[in-house]
Design brief:
This protein is of the alpha/beta class. It has 13 helices and ten strands. About 55% of the residues lie in helices and about 15% in strands.
Length: about 350
């Protein structure tokens, strides 16, 4: 708010002064008798334009630029700054003869135009990843916030972008309390927005899941065992949350923490490190080997004819061949094979 007011005052004063100067020039060229009209009229117009438009050109534009470049590696920003400086130097050398020109407007407008054009070209050329001259000084072109994390006293490792599904799932809270999460958990603004939309859904089930996710997120924030950040960053090249997460993960060299099977596969294809909570849970489950016996309760019919389905105490699904005749009864079964997937573990068994 204060920045908006200050920018309006400063912008209005600058444009009013500029309007005054233009009014003097116009009245001298066209009609000196209209001096008061042109000077005060253009000064007033410039002041009004400055007061109204300056925040959009300065404060809000700078915020937008900061948001867009926050996920860009610092090395690329430094390279772009070098390109801008070199472009301005070249523009100065080219415009030196024009500064000595007898034409007032040519001596002012041309150097300014060349500076803007060549400076922009230099910054744009050096911004390309292939021309990143500071990449070796800042390893992997990552932001110092993340590259220094691995060496911080708290031992935080590489950052992890948290998906909405992992927040709603809730098991991340228990994992963080154990101290196994050593990296910084990053929850971008668009993930929070999606979580709020789910919590405000007209569907009762989705609304309940969304509110549970907000509760889980609040618990994570209060947990001293894990470091969390909620940056105002975005990835405008994609409209979907999964696409934004994958794009940001590539830019920030971060992993994705999720329980979403589809996001897991897409990210792995793109070469992004994925931390799947389901895979972690599956790896910690007691291992049953073929030939081992276990007692379960058959709860319902399976997809295939004659199959019955039960569950172990940890929620692992057990598909029993010819188990449809034992629904709602306890049954001793022998493990035939174990199918391990990213979505979970499925045990196929036969009645003992």
């Amino acid at each position: 708010m204060v920045a908006d007011i200050l920018s309006r005052i400063i912008g209005g004063a600058i444009l009013a002064t500029g309007g005054w100067g233009i009014g003097e020039y116009v009245s001298d060229v066209w009609d000196p008798r209209q001096y008061v009209f042109w000077v005060f009229g253009l000064a007033l117009a410039g002041g009004v334009i400055g007061i109204v438009a300056t925040p959009y050109v300065t404060v809000r534009l700078s915020r937008s630029v900061a948001e867009q470049t926050r996920s860009v590696p610092t090395s690329r920003l430094l390279s772009s700054a070098v390109g801008l400086i070199l472009g301005l130097v070249v523009a100065l050398l080219l415009s030196t003869p024009l500064l000595l020109s007898s034409s007032r407007w040519l001596g002012v407008a041309a150097p300014v135009g060349l500076s803007l054009l060549i400076g922009y070209l230099g910054a744009a050329l050096m911004f390309a990843p292939s021309r990143d001259i500071f990449q070796k000084l800042i390893p992997e072109g990552r932001d110092p916030r993340h590259s220094d994390a691995a060496h911080s006293p708290n031992g935080y490792a590489a950052p992890m972008l948290v998906d909405t599904s992992a927040i709603i799932d809730g098991r991340i809270v228990a994992i963080s309390k154990t101290g196994f999460i050593q990296g910084t958990l990053i929850v971008p603004r668009f993930v929070l927005d999606e979580l709020r939309r789910v919590a405000d859904s007209s569907d009762a089930l989705r609304r309940s899941r969304g509110r549970r996710g907000l509760e889980m997120l609040n618990e994570i924030r209060q947990d001293d065992n894990v470091r969390t950040e909620f940056p105002e960053i975005d990835y405008p090249q994609s409209n979907e949350v999964d696409g934004k997460l994958a794009g940001l993960a590539r830019q920030m060299d971060a992993a994705i923490l999720t329980t979403d099977f589809n996001l897991n596969r897409v990210a792995q294809i793109d070469g992004i490190t994925v931390l799947n909570v389901n895979e972690l849970a599956n790896s910690l489950r007691p291992v049953l080997i073929p030939g081992e016996s276990v007692n379960i309760r058959i709860l319902h019919e399976g997809k295939e004819r004659g199959q019955g389905v039960g569950y172990l105490e940890d929620g692992t699904m057990v598909v029993v061949d010819s188990g449809v005749h034992h629904i709602d009864t306890d049954l001793d079964v022998t493990v035939a094979r174990v199918l391990q997937t990213a979505a979970g573990c499925i045990i196929f068994a036969n009645p003992s």
